[in-house]
Amino acid sequence: MLPSKAGISVADIAAGTYAYSGILLALLRREGATLEGSMLEALGEWMGFPLYYTLYGGDELKRSGARLDSAVRVRSSALCIRVG
User: Fold this and answer.
1) Range 41-59 average pLDDT
2) How far apart are CA 27 and CA 21, in angstroms?
3) Among 8, 29, 10, which Cα is nearest to 18's?
4) What are the residue ranges spanned by the domains of the chain?
């Protein structure tokens, strides 16, 4: 079997996006908050569009593999949150 390139971890990205939104909301409200996140629930939310597109759009979405036409490559990124 030939080695293949693994795809991106969509569940990690989805859960991280929702966690980031929750952190920003807690900072905006300026109160303590308990954040809970589920990778499965975040991924289920993201898969809603392909499901609805397939059910009500008439055509199945074509598989794109590891190719992402809408993605932009970033060399480095940093996140710094300072409170107080």
Assistant:
1) 82
2) 10
3) 10
4) 10-57
